[in-house]
Write a structure and sequence with these properties.
Elements lengths: L1 H7 L7 E5 L8 H14 L4 E5 L3 H8 L1
Parallel strand pairs: 1-2
């Protein structure tokens, strides 16, 4: 997921990121999701479309 985000950070056009839960992450799932939300914001993603159990956290981190 982070590798994909690091590729789109070089795009000049509007960045849109569509994401769902990464259910395979286990106990540290929340931490990993939070770091992806933060990275998306940091690289200039304009729109994050997220569907999953961390929707409130996505809104809190990403805006």
């Amino acid at each position: 997921m982070k590798s994909s985000l690091n590729q789109i950070k070089h795009f000049k056009k509007t960045k849109i990121f569509v994401m769902g839960d990464m259910g395979e992450l286990g106990e540290r799932s929340l931490d990993h999701h939070l770091s992806v939300f933060k990275l998306a914001k940091d690289i200039g993603v304009k729109y994050l479309l997220y569907m999953g159990k961390y929707k409130n956290e996505a809104k809190s981190v990403f805006g």
